Amino acid sequence: MALPRLTGALRSFSNVTKQDDYSEESADLTDKRSHLQEQLLYSELNWKEILKFIDENSDKGIQKSLHGDLRTIFQAAKQIVGSENGQETIESGSVFLFKTLYMKEYVGHEETKAIKQMFGPFPSSAATAACNAASRIASHFTEEQLTALLHSAEQQHGDPQQCFGRNIMFSFDMHDLDHSEELPANGEMDGQKFISLDYKKFLNSSLEHFPNGYDESFMKPSEKVDDSFLLCEVGKYLNESLKGTPGDPTMEHLCCTLYEILASTKSGDELQNELFELLGPEGFELIEKLLQNRSTIVERYFSGPNDYKLQSLQEQCKMFTGENTKPNYGCQITIQSEQEKQLMKLCRREEKRNARREKRIGDDGEIFGDGLLSFDPKELRMQREQALLNARTMPVLGRQRDSDFEKIHYPHVYDSQAEARRTSAFIGGAKMILPEAIERENNKMYEEVKIPHSEPMPIGLEEKPVYIQDLDEIGQLAFKGMKRLNRIQSIVFETAYNTNENMLICAPTGAGKTNIAMLTVLHEIRQHVQQGVIKKDEFKIVYVAPMKALAAEMTNYFSKRLEPLGITVKELTGDMQLSKSEILRTQMLVTTPEKWDVVTRKSVGDVALSQLVKLLILDEVHLLHEDRGPVLESLVARTLRQVESTQSMIRILGLSATLPNYLDVATFLHVNPYIGLFYFDGRFRPVPLGQTFIGIKTTNKVQQLNNMDEVCYENVLKQVTAGHQVMVFVHARNATVRTAMALREKAKNNGHICYFLPSQGPDYGQSEKQVQKSRNKQLREMFPDGFSIHHAGMLRQDRNLVESLFSRGYIKVLVCTATLAWGVNLPAHAVIIKGTQIYAAKRGSFVDLGILDVMQIFGRAGRPQFDKFGEGVIITTHDKLSHYLTLLTQQNPIESQFLESLADNLNAEIALGTVTNVEEAVKWISYTYLYVRMRANPLVYGISHKAYQMDPTLEKHREQLVIEVGRKLDKARMIRFEERTGFFSSTDLGRIASHYYIKYNTIETFNELFDAHKTEGDILAMVSKAEEFEQIKVREEEIEELEALLCEFCELPTPGGVENSYGKINILLQTYVSRGEMDSFSLISDSAYVAQNAARIVRALFEIALRKRWPAMTYRLLNLSKIIDKRLWGWVSPLRQFSVLPPPVLTKLEQKQLTIDKLKDMRKDEIGHMLHHVNIGLKVKQCVHQIPSITMEATVQPITRTVLRVRLNITSDFKWNDQVHGTGGEPWWIWVEDPTNDHIYHSEYFIIQKKQVIAKEAQLLVFTIPIFEPLPSQYYIRAVSDRWLGAEAVCIINFQQLILPERHPPHTELLDLQPLPITALGKPEYEALYKFSHFNPVQTQIFHTLYHTDCNVLLGAPTGSGKTVAAELAIFRVFNNYPMSKAVYIAPLKALVRERIEDWKIRIEEKLGKKVVELTGDVTPDMRSIAQADLIVTTPEKWDGVSRSWQNRSYVQKVSILIIDEIHLLGDERGPVLEVIVSRTNFISSHTEKAVRVVGLSTALANARDLADWLNINQASRELKTFVCFQNSNPGLFEQKQPNT
To answer: Which ranges of 1199-1248 does DSSP label H, i.e. alpha helix?
Structure first.
C-alpha cells in the first residue's frame, strides 16, 4: 500500500525538510547529488556490467568475437538513438537492445513494438544486426547466468532508500525534533490507540504507556543531545527517584537550577559535589550524563532553542535566580514590585532577541546547529515580525537600501522588478524568482512550471507614436513602406534620431531593436549632408553582430532600407572578405566581434578606416559574460580610448536582451543613464510570451529521450489541435529528421494525424508539386502529413521552400536547428526547445544550451500580426530546470570574462601601439567592463574586502595584474617589458600573435617546439598541441572510428595516436585534408573546428618562419597552409584544384605521372588519347593554362662590395578566368634565399593584377640584398603563389661573372685642428656676413683648399656640416681673383634654388654689391641681366639647356666655377643631366683654354674615389669628409657617422 504524501502544512510541524547537519560545504552537497544520481544510474543494468560479465564468464578464445558482437550492438544503438545524444545515452540504448533481444531468434512484432515505443521509428537493419549479435552472445552462456546478470543489478543496488515517511516526528509546537526521538508509527505499538499533535499530551501519554517512565529505546541520549535532552532526563529522574511526593521541586525549577549550575565557570570536580548535594544518591546516572554532555547542553540552551517550553524555563530560571546563582530550594524568596516585574520582562525580551540573532552565527562566524538552512516557519515568522518592528522604528527617508541605485529613478527604465523592489512590501535582500500567476504541475514523469504571458504595459501620458510622414526626407526614404514606429522605437526616437548620445537599449527579443539601430544610422548620415548631397567618404558605420548568420540577415535588411539613399552596406566576416578598396567604397560594415577586433588590431593599413568610424553599433551586448565577452570589451575599450586620444566623436549604441545589471553595462559603454539608458522589460514584447519549463525526472538516458519525445508530442498536439503552427528546435541536424519522424509516427499511431494535415488552400497543389521536385527524400515524405525539417545542412533552395511553405501555413510542425532562429525571421505561434544538451566543439563536450540561444528561439514565438500572445516551451532534465528558470527570469548579473584573456588583449594593444607602459595599461583596464564589475563585486575577481576598502579605484590591483601579464608576455618573447621603467615594446612574435589571433599559451608551445628543421608531420603534431584545441577530448565511443580514419586517411605520422587529444586533432586535420567522411556527430563538429583554427595557426607559423628567415621552413609552411585551405595533399596533381575535371580523369593523370610542364607541351588531342577520353583533352588543356605561373628575370648590380641591387622583371604566363581567379589579383610571395647559409635575405608580398595578366605586362621589383666575401656560388629567388598549390617559380642569381667595385681608401680623417677664426678671410666685408666667430672643424680643414687654391673639390659630408659655407668660400675666391668671371651654383630642386636666392640676395647682392640671378623653369631673366650677373643660381635641367648653345652665349664661356650641390644624385634618374653638365664644362674649358673649377657637394659617399676621378681631382687636393659636426658652443665636439651608401 502506498504511503500518503504529506502536505506542506504537515511538513512544517515535522522534521521532513530538516537535515541533520548543514555545516558542510555546498560542494559536498553537489557531490552528494551526483553520487545519488550515479546510484540511480547504476540501480539498473548498465553497459560496463555487461562488459565485465563477459570478461569474467567467458574463455579468452571467444572474448574477441564477443566484444565484436557487443560493438555491433553498440553501433546499432548509435544508429537508432542518434550519435548526437552522447555516450551515456547510447550505452543505455545498447543495454535496452540487449535486454529486449538476447533471447530472440529474430526481431518479431513484440520486439519491434518495444523498440519503436522507446525510440520512435528506427532502421530495421540496425535492429536485426543487434538481434543477431545479442543471440550470438547469449548462446555462449547458460540461462541461469544471463538471468543472474539481468537481476544482479537489482539485488546489488537493492533499494537503498527507505520509504518516505517512515520515521517522521510531529509536534504541536512546530518543535525541531530529531531522528533520535522516534515516534511510534501507525500500528507499531499495540497499546497505543491514538496519536495527538499536542506535545504535552503526547509526553504524558507516553509516560503512562511506559511502566518505567521513559524507556531507553525512546530516548537515546548517547545518540544526540538535543534541546529537550535536559528536560527529559530531569523528568526521568523525578519519576524514578521522588515518585511524585508532594512539595517536590517542579520539573521546570529543577531544570533551571541544573542549567545555572552547568553554565557556571566551576570545574567538573566542583560541580560533581554540588550536584550530588542537590540530587542525592538517586541522581548518580543523571549527574554522569549531565557532566558528559555539559558543554553541549549549555551551548544548546544558550543558542536560543525553538520551543516555547524551554524559553519559559529560561525565563523562569532568570526570574528565580536574579543575581544569585546558588540553588534556591525553599531557602530564598524573591520579592519584586510591579515595576520591577515589567522591567525584567522587557529585559528578557531583549535578551531573547539577542539570543535569536546569536543563534544564527556563533562567535567565529560559524553557522551553528540547525542554523540557517532548516525550514523553520516559526523562525521565519519571528524574523518577519522583527523586520516589521525595525521598519516601524526606522525613519522613512534615512533608510539605507542594500543597493544604492534604487533610490534614483531613471527616466527611461521600465523595469517591473525594480519597481517591485521599490514597493513597501519588498524585504531587502530577498531574491525575486517568479511572477505571481505561476502554475506548477508535478507528476511522476516531469515537473512543469508555467509562467503566463504578461499584460502589456499601459500607455503613458507623454508617449506619442512617431509617424514616418513626420520625419525629414532621409527618414521617409529609409522607412519606406512603414506607417509608424512601434512603441519602443517611439520612446527612444528623440535620443536616437536627434542627439549624439551613447545609448544602451535593453529590450526583449523581437521588440524592434534593429530599427532603433536604423534611427542612429540615419542620424549619422544626416550629419554628413551638405547642400542635399551625402558626403559618403567622410564616415563609416560599423554594426557588430554576434553570429555570421545574423550578420548576413542584417546586411540584407540595411541594404534594402538604405538603398534609396545610395549607401552601400557590406558584410565583413570570416566568410565574406573585402579588399581595401571595397572597404573604402562602403559606408556601413556589418561584421562579427572577432573580425572587427582583427581589423582594428592591424594598425598599418586600417588606421584610416578605424578613424573614419563615427558610429559603432554592438548587437547582443549581454554576450559580455560568455566566452566571447572579452572581444567586445577590448573593442569598446579601444574605441573609447580612441575617442579620448583623438578627440573625435564616435557614438556607441549597445543593443541587448533584458539583463539584470544594466547600469553596469551602461557605465561600461559610457552611457549617461538619464539620457541614453533605455530598459524595457517583458511587458514591451510585441507579442507577449508565455513560458513553460518542463523538467524530465528520470535519470536513465534512454528513458529520458523517450519521455522527452512523449512530452514534446503532448505539447505539439495541444498547439496543433488549437489550430496553431509549432516549431520544434533540436540541436543536431540528424536529430531534426529523427524527431519529425517520431512525432509523425506518434500522431499516426494515436489517430491524431488528421489535425496535422495541411489545409487545402488555393495554391496547395502548386506547393505539393514544388516539394515533390526536391531531391530531399525526407522532405517529400513528410510534407503531405504537415511535417517538415530545416537545418543548415540542407540545400539553400530546399530551405527557402520550407520557409515559404511554413509562412503560408502548409506546414503545421517544423523541426529545425537553432540556425533558423538566428538567420531567418520566421515566427510561429509556439516554439518548443526539445532537450538542452548541445555539442560544443569549442568546449569539446556537451554543454547546456546558452541563454542567448534560448532567448533568440523564444523570440520567434508569436506572430505579430495574428497572435495575442506566443508560447515558448523548454523541455530539459529535472536538474537543469531551476538553471533555466533563473536565467530566463534574469536573476544573475552578468560578470566579465576578461581576466582569462588579459594576456592576449594586452599584447594586441601593445602591438597596436596604444599601450606603451604600465601606467597606460592600467588606464586601459579602467575602460573595460571588468573594471566596472571589479568595483561592483570585488570578491568574484579575487579582491578581498579589505583590499577594496584601502584601494577603492583598484589602482594597485590593476597594476599588479598588468605587471604579472607583462612578465608572462616577456617570457614568451611576445613583448619586451622593461620592469624598472615600466615600458612595453612589441616584437615580431607579438605582432603576429595579435594579427592571427593566436593565444599566449600557444606561442609558448611554439617557442619550445618550433625550429628550422621540422618536417610536415612535426608541424602538424605541433599545431595539434596549440591551446586553441585544449578543450577537445578523446571520447570512448570515438576511438574505433578514429582508428579507422587513422588507417585510411592519414598520410603523415600522428604521434599521440587515438588515445591522446593531440593525436585526435592531428587525425581529424589529416582526414579533413584527405576529404574523409566521418559518421560520429561530435567528430564532424570537432573536425570543422580543428580545420578552421589550424589554417589560421599554420599561417601564423609561416609568418614566424619568414621573420626568422628560414627558407626551407617558410616554403614548407606556406605549402601546408595551402594544403589545408584546398584540402589537397601536396603530392597530388595540382589540377585537382579545378572542380570541373571529373575524378577518374585526375586519377589517370596521376597514374601516368603527367606533370603540369609535360601537359603544357602536349596538344589537346594527345592528352585525350593518353587519358582514353578524347573530348576531355581540351578541358584539361584549359585548366593547365589557368594555373598561375610566372617567369622571372633578374639583373644584379653591385652598389658596394657588400650590397647588391636586384631588378626583377616578372611576367605572368597564364590565362585569366574570372570564375577561377576572381576579379582582384593573384597574390604571390617572393624571397631571396642563400642555400648554403639557409637564410632569407629579402622577402615581399606582391599581387599580379588581372589587367597585367591579360596585357602580358611585366612587373618590376627593385630591392637590395647583402653579399659576403668570398662570394657564394648563387642565390635563389623563389616565387610561390599564396593561393595555388603547384604554382611557383625559381630564378637563380649567379655570382660567377660579378665584378665588385674596388676597395676604397678610408675616408679623410678629421684632424684635431684649432678652430679657424673668420678673420682668416682677410676681408671685413666677408667677415660681416657671418654671425659666428670661428669655422667648424670640417670648414677649418678644407678652408685652405677652397679659398687659396683653384683645384677641383669633392666635399662629402653629412647634412648640417656647413657645406653651404664651403660653397661661399669658393665663390669668394672667384670674387677676389677673377672679378670679371661668373660663378654658377646648381641645386637639384627649385625650392632649394629659391632658398639660396632669398639668402644670397641679401648677403651677397645687398651687402657685397654683387649681382645674383635666379635661373629656373619658373624664372627666366632677360639676356642682359644674366650677362651682368656675378652669381647664377639654377637647376641642372635649366643649366643643361642654357649651356648647350655655349658658342653663342658669351656668359656661359665666362663661367669660372661650377658648384654642384647634392652631386650624389648622379645615381638617381636625374644623374645623366649632371653627367652631361660636367662633361660639357670640361669640354668648354678645353676649347676656351680657360680652366673651370668644379666643386661637388654631397652627403658622405662610399665610392668617393670614382667620383673624384671623374671630376679630375688629383690625390693631393682631395678632401673627403665623413663626419657630422655639431655647431655649438664647443666647436671641438664631433660625432662620427657611418657613410651613406
So the answer is: 1218-1221
**What is d(CA 1026, CA 996) in angstroms, rounded to the nearest whole number?**
13
Least-confidence region, from 176-190, 373-387, 648-662: 176-190
CB-CB contact of 386 with 353 (8 Å):
yes
Which class for 476: exposed (0-12), middle (13-18), buried (19 or more C-beta within 10 A)?
Answer: middle
Q: What are phi and psi of 1064, to 5 degrees?
A: -60, -45
> Which three-class secondary structure state does DSSP give residue 1526?
coil
Rg (CA), the chain: 46
Helix, strand or coil for residue 8?
Answer: helix
Q: Which of 973, 1228, 994 is nearest to 1108 (CA)?
A: 973
What sign results for the dihedral spanned by CA atoms 38, 44, 46, 50?
positive
DSSP assignment string, 369-396: TTTTTS--HHHHHHHHHHHHHHHHHS-S
Identify whether the C-beta of residue 34 lies closer than 8 Å to the C-beta of residue 699: no
More confident residue, 576 or 1192: 1192
Using CA atoms, how far apart are residues 987 and 403, in angstroms rounded to an integer?
46
Whether the Cβ atoms of residue 545 and residue 574 lie closer than 8 Å to each other: no
Integer Cα distance of 1018 and 273 in angstroms: 86
Q: What is the pLDDT of residue 1230?
A: 94
The pTM score is 0.66
Beta-carbon contacts of residue 440 (< 8 Å; ≥ 6 apart): 447, 448, 449, 450
Pick the closest to residue 150 from 66, 45, 38, 57 (CA basis). Answer: 45
Beta strands in 1368-1467 (DSSP E): 1382-1386, 1412-1415, 1431-1434, 1455-1460
CA–CA gap between residue 898 and residue 624 (Å, rounded): 9
What is the secondary structure of 742-800 as a DSSP string?
Answer: HHHHHHHHTT-HHHHSPP--TTHHHHHHHHHH-S-HHHHHHGGGTEEEE-TTS-HHHHH
- Residue 615: closest CA among 502, 480, 746: 502
Q: Are 661 and 842 in contact (CB under 8 A)?
A: no
CB-count burial class (<10 Å; 0-12, 13-18, 19+) for 257? buried
pLDDT per residue over 483-506, tens digit each? Answer: 888 888 888 998 998 889 999 999
Pairing assessment for the beta strands 1431-1434 and 1523-1525 based on DSSP bridges:
unpaired
Angle at 29 between CA 27 and CA 30, to 5 degrees: 65
Which pLDDT value is given to residue 977?
92
The cell for 1407 is: 651687402
CA gap 488, 102 in Å, rounded:
64
